[in-house]
Protein: Riboflavin synthase
Amino acid sequence: MFTGIVEELGEVTAVETLGDASRFRLRGPVVTEGAQHGDSIAVNGVCLTVVEHEGDEFTADVMAETLKRSSLGALTVGSRVNLERPTAVGARLGGHIVQGHVDGTGEVLARTPSENWEIVKISLPADLARYVVEKGSITVDGISLTVVEAGPDYFTVSLIPTTLALTTLGVKQAGDPVNLEVDVIAKYVERLLAAGQGAGR
Structure:
């Protein structure tokens, strides 16, 4: 489990196509400290498994399903990525419960700068809109954020200078894809309510 508090901005150093999958090599001095084969690291919000680790770099295999459902397929050598290690049991939950299981992708629609923060508008797939509410939590490229406005096919988030400086959202422009993970609690509640209604018939 992750919390959506990005630990560092990493970089893609190599991409190898493996037929129906890809192997990425990524640099991240913070997240690779003490890393072992089989460990999990979230890359732009996608939970990946460490295959190899050498120095401040690690490799991870990404299957076709993940490439199709996330924006990882658009990464190239030199791309910056948000990196986070799983949270330790008993640690502070700085963001919200993040699984690293991307629900879909959105697109940056607009950026509205202000003196001390910036509003970013992001498109929202129709099948995810019901899980996104004003002042609720959403994960964008692995970043735990609070929804400012929830529209029928978009939402907005407000970014503080720290988020702009230390994550990929500081440089994403209109048209760029982003990974989205909605609040898992909302999905469980929906499923339970549906099951309860069916049992009462």
Summary: Residues 104-189 form a domain with the Elongation Factor Tu (Ef-tu); domain 3 fold (CATH 2.40.30.20). The two ends are 36 Å apart (CA to CA).
